[in-house]
Amino acid sequence: MSESSGTGAGAGFTVTLGRAGAYDVVVLVVFLMFGSAAHGSADRGTGHLVALGATFFAGLAAGWALSRAWRAPARLWPTGVIIWLTTVVVGVVLRGLLIPDAGFEPGFLLITTGFLGVTLLGWRALARPPRRKS
């Protein structure tokens, strides 16, 4: 099954369902790698990294389910926005509930929201064709 960006005739490159899922997974892996490196999470052990990853992957899965992303996975609106916000909210809440001493800083929420917004929405925006001039 393939899905173009859903912008109508002459749509940009085609994004398959599997490729869209892979892009979102890569985004989260990069987010987790940079976050772990910046905050020394790797020093806390593999269990900590797995738990941290699980919280955000649960958020991503919830976002895919809530948006029914399999219908139009490359759409920026509403699919991408729902996936982005759900991933952030569920990931941050589960992180706070399930990871001992995770703590919470407003800066973490800002960076998480910004990074995931730029990346989860960014690849979807790039999948859209430029508007034709009239």
TrEMBL record:
Superkingdom to which the source organism belongs: Bacteria
InterPro entries: DUF3054
Keyword terms: Membrane, Transmembrane, Transmembrane helix
Pfam families attached to this UniProt entry: DUF3054
Coiled-coil regions listed: none
Transmembrane intervals: 21-42, 48-67, 79-100, 106-126
Identification of the protein by name: DUF3054 family protein
